[in-house]
Design brief:
Pfam families: SWIM. One of its GO terms (molecular function) is zinc ion binding. It comes from Nocardia tenerifensis. It is a single chain. With about 180 residues, the chain is an alpha+beta fold. The longest helix is centred in the middle third of the chain and has 17 residues. Helix content is about 40%, strand content about 15%. It starts with 8 loop residues before the first helix and ends with a helix. Strands 1-2-3-4 form a four-stranded antiparallel beta sheet, with helices on one face. Helix 2 crosses helix 5. The chain is globular, with a radius of gyration of 19 Å. The chain binds zinc ion. Zinc ion (ZN) binds next to helix 5.
């Protein structure tokens, strides 16, 4: 099966969090949740400590909010150290990328960036009583796709830190640094 979800170790960890709901018995909502995420039915907004989403299913929109606990100061310090070391050892990454080896280093250091369902505070305004509902599951699948595309997001969700800020694009020159006389001349 192609790794449609979890193409990177960063996204895969988030996919695994969703799929722990199948540990005891198959969750019939998962295929539907995957289909919603795959078809861009979940529009995400991410910030430190929270993911919010508008999820549209058959024309009906639901609003999901998932709160994620921030890392402790100690974890944040450890994570920043590992990130700085890893970025120094792996120059020239694409914007938003993080080395796969860093994910393994996080694991070895006991740092988990994906949050188990039990530790998330997830709300949805749909009327289903079942939790997590399909909207919350679709949001988590969409999040794993986003994290696959941009691994830095996995870390940004858990801490506010300049360590993961993007380096400026070397091809980009602020307009103020251009001399109009020569640039337009
Ligand atoms: Zn819902």
């Amino acid at each position: 099966m192609p790794a449609e979800f979890g193409a990177t170790p960063w996204g895969r960890t988030w996919t695994r969090v969703v799929e722990t709901t199948t540990a005891s018995l198959p969750n019939p909502l998962l295929p539907k949740a995957r289909s919603i995420a795959r078809n861009h039915g979940a529009t995400l907004n991410t910030e430190v400590g929270a993911v919010t989403a508008k999820v549209v299913v058959s024309g009906a929109e639901s609003t999901v909010r998932i709160e994620l606990p921030a890392w402790s100061e100690e974890t944040k310090t450890d994570a920043e150290r590992l990130i700085a070391k890893s970025l120094a050892a792996n120059p020239g990454l694409a914007p938003g990328d993080l080395p796969d080896s860093l994910e393994a280093e996080f694991s070895a250091a006991g740092i988990t960036f994906a949050v188990p369902l039990a530790d998330q505070i997830a709300t949805c305004d749909c009327r289903t009583r079942k939790r997590p509902c399909v909207h919350i599951l679709a949001t988590l699948y969409a999040l794993s796709m986003r994290v696959d595309e941009r691994p830095r997001l996995a870390v940004e969700l858990r801490m506010d830190s300049a360590t993961v800020a993007e380096e400026p694009d070397p091809d980009w020159i602020p307009l103020s640094e251009l001399d109009p006389a020569t640039f337009y001349g």
